[in-house]
Fold these 2 entries.
Entry 1:
Amino acid sequence: MTAKLSAEPQTFRSVCNVYAYLTSDNARKSFDKPAPCDPASYYLSEGAYHSARAILLQMECIILRTLSFDVKIVTPHHLAMTYLQTLGVFQSEPSSKSRAVAARTLAHLNLALFSPQLLYVTNQPIALAVAAIYLASREVGVKLPGNEWWEVFDVEREDLGFLVVAMTSCEAWIRAEKEKWLDRPCPLDIGELEVELKRRGQDSDA
């Protein structure tokens, strides 16, 4: 469902091909020890594709029923671009700096999706957009109008500070997670997930 509504919609076949690769031996080798890629290990036959497509459609129906078909949400990405225009970052002729601010803003918003603090669940899209703009403008060196411009968008200084710290800490957390999974494959199905949960339970008891 997410692929359908994205800026670059993906087909069922593309999604199935990616998953076939992720479950292959090629994708499960260490990032630090790349090996020759064997396309035969993740080849998706026509029959396998139709089976995977049917499963995807079934899962989509279950998710939609669970959500009561209420899929109208506000994401911070579009808000951030609108706010950048409001703040005068985008001129009639976009400059290299304005493009860089926009790119860094979207990068921070995408990175926040991985936050263990569940930033997208615990914070409003407006606050997320403002925090991403704040970080991006400081990184690129673009001065925004006013000393406390975030108040125009009804974002408190305390909320902004918390989100800035949380977003900047995401990168370190992701690096730590990468190190954690270098020696073992990431669970991609129910069986592997149950094994991982059992292992974590044993580690916490020890």
Entry 2:
Amino acid sequence: MLLEDQRFLHEDLERLEQGISDRTLEDPRHIRDRLNRDHQISGFLTRIQQQSKRLLDIYNDTEGLRTKEIQSISTGDPFDEFYKQLNDIKDFHRRYPNEPVENLERAYKRKAPGEGESATAEIDHMFTGEEAYGRFLDLTRLHEDYLNLPGVQSRRVTYLQYLSIFDHFTPPHCPIKRSEKTTDQYFNYVGSLAEYLEGFLRRTRPLDDLDKIFASFDQEFEKAWEAKEVLGWSTEIQSVGPTAPITEGTGEGIWCADCEKEFKNDNVYRNHLTGKKHTKAAESRKANANGTTNGETARSANKSSASSTAKNLKERAIAEREWRIRKFASTMETVRSDTRVNVERRQGMTERERQQELDALFAESAEPSLRPSGAADDESDSSDDEKIYNPLKLPLAWDGKPIPYWLYKLHGLGVEFNCEICGNFVYMGRRAFDKHFNEARHIYGLKCLGITNTTLFREITNIEDALKLWDKIARDKKKEKTGGENIVQMEDAEGNVMPEKVYY
């Protein structure tokens, strides 16, 4: 019964659209409920595409079954066809008496918390505790893999530093050389990092057209790779002088192909050319080259070309993963900065406080599911009028609650620092005060005063003091410039040259 299937698909599409509109009107307060809503809408949109494809196939009617069914209804006695289909339905239910009937009205309707709605369980298993439902990144395992890479083992990179450099693959941030990047260990590392970042984007942004964004990343990489403009993978050109061959060893000295040895100094390389060892090695290499047959030469050429092709393909795959990691990191720059702040904050907490914070997060996320349906509106109205008890005026943490008083005293957030250069802006705490000297507000204030060298004006907040210091620096530079021309140099008995003032 294709007409019944057609009617069912139309009803299903309308119910899906109604379910999406109902969820779009919601404004969840907690990030878990917001992610749950977005993932449900994403699932509905996927089902709309599938059902629309089935409906389109019915309308195309490539086999002509729909046309035959319409003709059988329109021609002849309609009651005969009706009773025939009715008997088929009764026969079906006689054979399958316990067959459940799908109720589309309740299938996509938003269920109340007391009716067994457990869709958030999927969100709970989707993120780790460190990720906090997609608010932060969890790169601890990848940080350990990074520390075990060749070239990084000698450096002690903390997790906080790694969050700032994990998308840098060129010196000075990344000490790994290009020759070391072709190892399987590095290939697996960049593959795991790119896979994690892509999965994190898909979990936190289910309604975005991520496939289109990822395809644009691949297109940009193709153009950059063909133009040889990929950062860290451009063509390497090395030259060590007209008399020395192209270096092959570590890339820092001069390579002797006959002796298969690298020399750090050009003079040592030239002197060894006349030695017996080099002469013997050169004659042996020449004899081996003359004794090689044409078949062996062809096989060696094919082998070298095959290995070169395989190496180029592997380098391209590694470069593509590095490109995607850079793009992912630029897309998630806000999450990345929040992760650094969160890690730095948690480093000043004890293990018990971290566990309490994690328990509070899960308890807060579980509160909406425990409330009865009748009291949901009343509690939502009362929650807007509820005020947080904060008599000490402590700063609020990420969860909207005041931070502990000991943490407030530890960071000195009760001490005010006024900066006249920043327009009498008040900074709370020594840490924020020290940090603001490198920020745009303070630098702009100094430039408005005509001061260009801002590094010498740290800890100076008064405009008058800054202008006095700048005038003194200008006078000293002018005096040093004019006085340097009239300096009389003296030489002592040991041949040391010094000014006349120091000499006497």
